[in-house]
Amino acid sequence: MDVSHLIDDLNDAQRQAVTLDDGHCLVLAGAGSGKTRVLVHRIAWLIQVEHVSPMAVLAVTFTNKAANEMRGRVEELLQIPSSGLWIGTFHGICHRILRLHSAEANLNPTFQILDSDDQYRLVRRTIREMQLDEGEFPPRVVQGFINARKDDGVRPDHIEHNGNPLTMQMVEIYRTYQGACERSGLVDFAELMLRTVELLRDNPNRLRHYQDRFAHVMIDEFQDTNTLQYALVKLLAGGAKTRVFVVGDDDQSIYGWRGARVENVQHFVEDFKPEIVRLEQNYRSTRTILEAANRVIDHNDDRMGKNLWTQGEQGEPVRIFSAYNEDEEAEFVVGRIQDWLESGRNPSGVGVLYRSNAQSRLFEQALLRADIPYRVYGGLRFFERAEVRDALGYLRLVHNPMDDAAFERVVNVPARGIGERTVAGLRETARAEDLSLWDATRRQLAAGNLTGRARNALGAFVELIESLRAEAGETDLGGMMQKIIRRTDLIQHYLAREPADRAEARQENLDELVRAAESFDQSMEDEQAGLSMTASFLTQAALEAGEHQGEKWQDCVQLMTLHSAKGLEFPLVFLAGMEEGLFPHQKSVEEPGRLSEERRLAYVGMTRAMELLYLSYAESRRLHGQTMFGRPSRFVGELPPELIEDIRPQLNVSQARAPRDSGGGLPALGSRVRHAKFGAGTVLTVEGQGENARIQINFDDAGQKWLVAGYATLEPE
Questions:
Q1: Which regions in the chain score pLDDT beneath 50?
Q2: Residues of the chain with CATH 3.40.50.300
């Protein structure tokens, strides 16, 4: 039998893993080293060479897309249907087992699966039925608590509360919620896993059946397994003849915040004593990119250890760009993308990666100005995000109380006891008397037609909007945006309702919205049309939100967080915002173990690049309503000098000085100047010479601006 097609196109390490003839195996598969190929060829080798029945192979991965790809490639290799193979996700495999053995699992045979949104609604209903305060027990937080306990394999009766009343109440909600699920025949995602583990653990005959059936258990992305998933692997692997083959990379474990346990890789080594095969030959990136990534990840001392290499070309140096501020960073990135496109390359070959979703806005704006198509991968565009639209809804209502859509959006956000029945009554009054919802509300309040709770809530809402309107004329746009967010308690609203990571992301987006308002520059056309600054800003936000971003199948630049980038690759990659406190994130620096995960995230980002890699940071950045003068990320400092090229030497904006020869007419530090649009101001910094010099001016009314000398037309005051 000719099996050359199964191994001829494999390298030595891949061939060693595929043809392993005994025992368990851990394949440490570096980025771009062909791990999927190894898994597929291993399955084919077992079936065609070792004559293993397809029914004896269980292959588990983390996404349906990966499972479908694996199934299709096995069919192509063997030219047989894959229907006999158990290939699927953890949740999919568990669902299949529970359907087959629902009675033994104490489940209704027609049980239904709750998706995340349905689960949230059931948790919320449970809290309300228990007559608990959603402010004290936010549904999202409770949902996260329940899922985390299930992922750890813990039922309500086994949770240690140590007399803590808050924990005791959370446990009671968990118990009540689970009772509601069982009465209704509902199973959430975490329950699929937990119920399967319990089924096999508590039914020796059933466990023996699957141990005897699955002679080969194969797990992909093993570094992403949680406590319960590892427990399932150990149960299935308990048979005398079972061989376990896992593929993973401890250097790419970046999901600790959602329950993944990178230590499972080490536990597997201790528990199973496997043969370890390292896939270190990379087929994606240049030698320079790989060596740079290796040098960064080497600073983690809790890793299994491997060193990526390639037979490919040396490639260009990793380029480091030091921007004056985040606006210049975005302009630089888009400028390089334009160069890329002008050289005949495709937009889809570009990935712009960042640590926080809030960073996308400036790149979106710069790409729109340059008319370059883009897509925010795995997320919403900045002005489409719920928290941004909520805050803008308040600004719209302050600007124009007759805006019914804005009124409906924010009247009960945050929740203030104004229910749908009350709003329906206002709509009826507005229709009957041809009024806006705002005027209908004021009329109902004046006539005393509302009940006590609704009257008080609507009265407080009207008072809030009117007080903000009264202050609008005395406050600039950025200050107004900041007041709205503070006075409406939007940040507290999200902190109370959602898990910490999601609430933090929303807070960062609201901070970025304030920065957008502060730096907004009204167009001459809007000014000539008589639009106020607020009207111009709202118009821009609406237009940007209404722009159609590129779809998956369109050729466009990809914007995404570093977490979303795992598994992807691009010829040209930008890692933006490489500053201490932003990346690594400040909270990660302060929490034990989190810094290692942040460094793994940097490693993942760098190894997405195939040909060119840029890292950028800003010397000053507007964060949380303040201008921060940061320093480059420690990950930038961990790069060896011989592998990098500084596009601009590092300059500290706050310490920059004007040259002795001002270049013929450049203003000196501290001098007073006047600009036709921005008015009078004081010169803070002069950098460069001649017409290309950059001048930072603190204008009395317009705030700090960077101007180019050749276009600024400044006059002495």
A1: 649-664
A2: 4-100+194-281, 297-381+549-653
Q: Does domain 657-716 have CATH number 3.30.2250?
A: no
In the chain, the largest separation of any two C-alpha atoms, in whole Å, equals: 92
- 396 belongs to the catalytic site: no
| Amino acid, single-letter form, for residue 201 | R
CATH H superfamily, domain 384-536: PCRA; domain 4 (1.10.486.10)
CATH 2.40.10 intervals, the chain: 657-716
The DSSP annotation for 289-313 comes to HHHHHHHHHTT-SSS-----B-SS-
CATH tag for 297-381+549-653 (out of 3.40.50.300, 3.40.1080.10, 3.30.70.890, 1.10.10.10): 3.40.50.300
CATH top-level class of 112-184: mainly alpha
Q: Is 223 a catalytic residue?
A: no
The angle subtended at Cα 294 by Cα 288 and Cα 298, nearest 5°, is 150
Q: Which residues pair with 704 in a beta bridge?
A: 698
Alpha-carbon dihedral 636, 639, 642, 646, rounded to 10 degrees: -10
Contact 29/9 with Cβ under 8 angstroms? Answer: no
Told to judge if 266 belongs to the known catalytic residues of this protein, a careful annotator would answer no
**Alpha-carbon dihedral angle through residues 150, 156, 159, 162, given to the nearest 10 degrees:** 150
Q: How many CB atoms lie within 10 A of CB 515?
A: 25
**HEC profile of 503-552:** HHHHHHHHHHHHHHHHCCCCCHHHHHCCCCHHHHHHHHHHHHHHCCCCCC
pLDDT at 657: 31
Q: Please, which residues bridge with residue 275 across strands?
A: 25
The residue from 37, 599, 608, 634 that is catalytic is 608
624-to-12, 108, 591 alpha-carbon distances in Å: 52, 51, 21
What's the CA gap between 44 and 74, in Å, rounded?
6
Listed residue (498, 528, 520, 555) closest to 349, CA to CA: 555
Grouping H, G, I as helix, E, B as strand and the rest as coil, residue 79 is coil
The three-class DSSP label of residue 497 is helix
CATH 1.10.10.160 positions along the chain are: 112-184
Q: Output the CA–CA distances (angstroms, integers) from residue 212 to 90, 217, 228, 237, 241, in the order listed.
A: 19, 11, 21, 10, 8
Taking the C-alpha atoms of residue 684 and residue 12, their distance in angstroms, rounded to an integer, is: 61
Q: Which of 19, 36, 167, 338 is catalytic?
A: 36
List, in order, residues 6 or more apart from 528 with CB less than 8 Å away. none
- Indicate which residue of 151, 188, 191, 220 is catalytic: 220
Q: Are 149 and 116 in contact (CB under 8 A)?
A: no
**0.85 exceeded by the pTM?**
no
CB 122 within 8 A of CB 114: yes
Q: Annotated catalytic residue: which of 188, 191, 221, 619?
A: 221
Round to the nearest angstrom and report the end-to-end CA distance of the chain: 91
96 is catalytic: no
The answer regarding whether domain 4-100+194-281 maps to CATH 3.40.50.300 reads yes
For residue 696, give the 3-state DSSP assignment: strand
- Annotated catalytic residue: which of 35, 303, 515, 621? 35
Alpha-carbon torsion (39, 293, 299, 596), positive or negative: negative
Left if phi > 0, otherwise alpha if psi is -120 to 50, otherwise beta: which for 30? Answer: beta
Query: Is 602:359 a contact under the CB 8 Å cutoff?
Result: no
Residue among 252, 422, 561, 607 flagged as catalytic: 252
The answer to whether 35 is a known catalytic residue is yes
Respond yes or no: is residue 220 known to be catalytic: yes
